[in-house]
Amino acid sequence: MAFVSHSQRDTNGSYTFSSRPRPVENRSKYREPPSEQTHSNYGNIMYDRRVVRGNTYAQHIIPTAAQLDPSEIQRQQEIRRRAISEKRAREQFISRTPEALQGRKHIDVQTDLYLEELSDVIVATDIECQTDAFLDKPATPLFIPAKSGKDVETQIEEGELFDFDREVQSVLEVLVGKTIEQSLEEVMEEEELACLRATQRAFEELRNNELAEVLRLQEQERRHSKEKERRISQQKEVLKKERETAEKIAARAYTQQYLADLFPAVFTSLRRDGYFYDPVEKDIETNFFPWLTSEVNKSLEKRFTARALLDTIICDVAQNRLEAFKDTQ
Amino acid sequence: MACSLTDPSRAPVAFGRRTVQQLFEELQQPEAGSRLRALASLCDLMHDPERIYHTVNGGFLEQLKVVFKDEDPSVRAKTCELLHMLTTHSIGRQALLSSSLLPPLYQLLDDSSSSCRRNAHQVLNRLTMLRAGANALLTLVPKLVLRLREEEDEEVQVLLLSTLSSCSRLDALPALASDGVSLLGHKLSHCSPDIRREAAAAMMALSVCEDGKRQVCEEAVLPVLVDLLQDKYIEIQANAAGVIMYTVISTTGKRQCLDLDVIPILLDLVSKDKEEEEEKERKKALVMYSLRALTALAEAPDGRRLLLEQLPLLVMRSEAADEDQDIRRAAQNAVRVVTWTP
Q1: Which InterPro entries would you find in this protein's record (chain A) (predicted)?
Q2: Torsion over CA of A88, A93, A98 and A99, rounded to 10 degrees?
Q3: N or C: which end of chain A has fewer CB within 10 A?
């Protein structure tokens, strides 16, 4: 049995315990080592003497938990202490007589004047009585005091408590007053608005009038200024044209005058530059004269070479003569 | 006077300063019927300027944003009516402008319920009485022109047209850009006089600027306007005369109008019949506009020729002692232009 329960230290140091559920064993208070036959004592829980049955409201069950709260422990200690003190207090008032000797017994004896039977049983008699059933109370007679004083009577006539006309006056006043107030407000408002609109309209008319006049004058101004501008530009155009024409005329006259003696000048310069020529003359110039000069050159060349030859001959001879002279020296 | 016993369609009203606060608290209730009643009471109360002041200063306007998105169309319509009441006063208008309630209001313009749309348009119309309001609505003008095209309900059309004319008085360009002139030209020949009047007023606002004049001439609106000059209602006549007055300032306008032979009609309007006193008041605008139109037409040579023949009439108008100052001045101006020689 003991092997069924497990208790061990957990990893973080706490202590765990676990065991299979089993019925509580019948053990004596002072434990003997558990025997193996405890299983046979296992019986129906319904017929177990240790199980509390019935009403448990007033039962003071000793908690089976082995651990008690420290406060619980304290409280129980206190209760025990109080009981002890009470008992001690009570014992104080009990007169202590020496104990009876051997073979004798203390007995309470009464030594008062009158004998009283001391017994536990109290003589009691039962007596009962019963009242009669209630009778109906008779009606009390009306208390009519004696007549004293004068008789006076009063009566409220038809229209005295409530006079419709008088009452309705105030209600009507309020109704009519409020309605008229409201309608007066509305009418005033409308009048105000109508007034506003009328002044607005009058103002608008005047404004339109003056605006039209202003616009017309503006337009007139614009037209006039445009017209003026147009005329001015037209005039400018005219002036420009005139100036142009005058310039053209002047240019024409000048050119005419400038070009008047153009012809003779041209012809003279052309003639001067030799653009007008006689072909025969030209031909003679271009063909004949070169040939002539070249022929002349040729003949002159001949003469020249002849002279050169002669010169060399002379030179040779002179040289020979000189050598010959030197030889003879 | 709103007590639930006397009038089951109104919520009970607390006293004094708690009035507005308590009604707005009731607006937060999830139950639709109580919201409607609270709104009805608020509408009644808003006729008093002091209550408007309380509403605006207590910052309750932001709570209306939630109510705008309510599913019940009558609640939405009532909220618009409440805003309509608020805008009768300048504080209300300014508060509405500075709060962020305008975008939900614009969304309501596309709402399915027509009473809702009508009330929303009423609010916008009132808002344009303030210059800053008209300024804020300028961005909305294209959308309004679009709505005008699709809208069939006459009342809403009238409101739309008057909103458009107020906005265009400030700045006509958005309306012109979204092709407003042709649309208004259509409306000019509508059967209902209110629509004609408002359309003519809007056209007058549009024709102030150059672009507008050009478009009016191009879209061939002038014949319709000349017809309107002979309409039964004086206001329509006055508005049509106003449009013509602006259009003939430009040269093309002058030419077209002279082609349409508009001078006799205008002279007819200017001529002094036996008018009664109160008719004189109403006719004042008409006479002034016609005089100005004649002045502008007199700048063209053909016009001047025609008018020189009719000069005595104008002179009579300008000399009359019991005449209004403005009319007299306008007539003298006309005479001066007619008798001008280069």
Answers
A1: Radial_spoke_3
A2: -60
A3: C
